[in-house]
Amino acid sequence: MKKIYVFYTPKRIVNTEDYEVEILEKVSKKFRLGRLLRYDSVNYEGGITYLKGIFERGKALVKFKEGGEAIALVKKYKRTFRIWI
């Protein structure tokens, strides 16, 4: 199932990489996605940045502007339960 999450990003006071990881960790904490395994970022004109994060239990695509609004599309992986006999 996919979910949309809208939130505000704080103003950046640290380097860009730490700022992007902080945003992805905020999304991870909200949806319990686990540890961040890897991520990629793309910057466009007008200060809009896209982040794609892969987590232990899902993935997220975040579009944001520094110190402004952000929108995240989150997909959690389905859990599979195995019964050992």
Structural class: alpha+beta
Beta-strand percentage? over 45%
**Helical segment tally?**
1
- End-to-end Cα distance: 30 Å
**Spatial strand sequence of the major β-sheet:** 1-5-4-3-2
Mean pLDDT: 90
Structure notes:
There is one protein chain. This protein has 1 helix and 5 strands. With 85 residues, the chain is an alpha+beta fold. A 5-stranded antiparallel sheet has the order 1-5-4-3-2. The radius of gyration is 14 Å and the shape is elongated. The chain starts with a strand and ends in a 9-residue tail after the last strand.
Topology:
Layout: E1 2-8, H1 16-31, E2 36-43, E3 48-55, E4 58-65, E5 69-76
Antiparallel strand pairs: 1-5, 2-3, 3-4, 4-5
Question: In short, what is this structure?
Answer:
The protein has one helix and five strands. With 85 residues, it is of the alpha+beta class.
Task: Name the features.
85 residues, alpha+beta, five-stranded antiparallel sheet, 1 helix, 5 strands
